[in-house]
Amino acid sequence: MTDYLRQLAFDVGEIDEDINLSLPPTSGEEYIKRVMIETQKCADIVVADIDRKHFKKPTIDVEPLSGCMEAPPWLGPTLDWQLCQVSDFSNIRLYISQLKDEIQTLKRKWKPPKIDMPSIDDEKGWIKFCSGNDEENIRVPPTLDVIFSLNQPMVEQILEYLVEHMETLKKIEYKLGQWIYALLVVLEMPLTPGTCSCLRSLARTCSVMRAKSKRLEVHEIGALNLFICLVARYFRQLDLADP
Q: Largest alpha-carbon pair distance within the chain?
C-alpha cells in the first residue's frame, strides 16, 4: 500500500535544469517541468524578517483578568466547610424549584406581591430596591413572593446590577448580600456567557475585599467566603476556588 502511494501520478520525463525560464512553455509537460524546477528552489521553511520598530505602540493597556486573590491564612475556608455550603445551597435550590413547579401546576396557590418594582432597565432603582440607602429607606427583602415575580432575564440583569454596585463598595452590605444569595438560588443553568462573567466578577470582588479585610466582621468574612465558594464549586468556576 505504501509503495503504491509513492508512485508518480504523472511522468514528465527528464528535467533539464538549464531550461530558459524567460521563454513561454511550448507544451503542458514543459510547463510542469518549470513548476518542478521552481519548487525545488523554494526553501522548506520561510521565516519573515520583521522590523518591530515600525509597529505602533498600543494606545490602551489591556491587562488580562486574574483569578481570585488568595485569602490570608487565617481567613480562608476549609474544604469541608466549602462542601457543606455547596450541599446546603443545592438543597435550597431544589426546594425552591419544587415550589415553583407546584405554583405552575396550580398545586400551590400564589399571588404576585402588591409591590411597585423598578423597570428592568432602571439600574439605580433596583439598587435602591434591593439595598436601600440612607436618604430614602427604600428596600424590599428578597421574600419568595418577590423572587417568584422575577423571570430569568430579570434575575440575570438584577444580579449584574448588584455585582457592579458591589464592586464600588469596601465591604459587602448585609441587605445586598441577602439579595445576591436569593438571586443565585433561582439562577437557572446552564449559565449564559454574560451571567458566567458576572459570577466570576462577583467572586473576584469578594476575594479583593477579603484580602484587604482590616475592619470586617466575622459574618462579613463568612459571606465573602460563601460567594466565592458557590461561584467556584457550585457554578463550576473551579479555577477561582479556594484550596
A: 95
Task: Please report whether residue 100 resides in a domain.
Answer: yes
Total residues belonging to the chain = 243
Q: Which domain holds residue 196?
A: 79-240
Which grid cell sits at 165? 454596585
- Whether residue 218 is contained in a domain is answered as yes
The answer to the question of residue 139 being in a domain is yes
| Each residue's pLDDT tens digit, 48-90 | 777 776 666 655 554 445 578 888 888 889 999 999 999 999 9
H helices, E strands: number in the chain: 9, 0
Residue pair 212/173 in contact (Cβ under 8 Å)? The answer is no
Query: CB neighbours (10 Å) of residue 94?
Result: 10
Domains in the chain: how many in total?
Answer: 1
Domain-embedded: residue 49 = no
pTM: 0.71
Residues 6+ apart with CB under 8 A from 75: 210, 213, 221, 225
